Amino acid sequence: MTGRKLAAEALGTTLLLISVVGSGIMGESLAGGNTAIALLANAIATGCMLYAIITVLGPISGAHFNPAVTLAFLVRWEIAPAMAVAYVLAQVLGGILGVWITHLMFDLPILQLSTTERAGLGQWSAEAVAMFGLLFVIFGGLAARADSVPTLVALYITGAYWFTASTSFANPAVSIARSLTDTFAGILPAHAPGFIAVQVAATLVSVPLLGWLFRSSK
């Protein structure tokens, strides 16, 4: 069962990055320089993929696909530390593989480093909001109606692409993987650690707050 869980986490994160990077490349190519259209394509494709992979792989692994989400469940003592570490490794490796597969599909150099700068207070505060919101819909959904979580996450991320200055990475594995693509979705490798630090900090702050907010009254 452990092997199946790790395979699901790796596969889901691979497919997530294929959707993020691939739709960014395709959107930019077809938009003719219109960044808004490219971002719309990027957001819709990512939201659709999130709904699909959470629905299909959720029964196997819980559908984290995100080290920050795994950290949140670890803080809540809902996953063992050793399994949490294994999940994170599977997610990071899966994300990198997804970027490389996307480059292959679009006939681009497999190995790249991004040159897109994403740093500063605005970007970091946007990532804090994005991370809190993602955990809000996950744990709020689990408390209210668990079968709604795939829809809630897909809708939230689709919207957060537009209402956050950072376009809502909200995922350390995604931040690492996107530093390895010099395309529409990329982030300068030197700026990825800042995103990851904010994502982790926001998770550690959000978990107790959301635990209190959604505490069962029964």
TrEMBL record:
Domain of life the protein comes from: Bacteria
Membrane-spanning segments: 37-58, 79-101, 121-144, 151-170, 190-214
Subcellular location: Membrane
Cellular component terms (Gene Ontology): membrane
Entry-linked SUPFAM superfamilies: Aquaporin-like
Membrane topology: Multi-pass membrane protein
Family matches, as InterPro entries: Aquaporin-like, Aquaporin_transptr, MIP, MIP_CS
GO molecular function: channel activity
Alphabetic keyword roster: Membrane, Transmembrane, Transmembrane helix, Transport
Main localisation: membrane
PANTHER family reported in the protein's UniProt record: AQUAPORIN NIP1-1-RELATED, AQUAPORIN NIP2-1
Similarity remark: Belongs to the MIP/aquaporin (TC 1.A.8) family.
Name of the protein in question: Glycerol uptake facilitator (Major Intrinsic Protein Family)
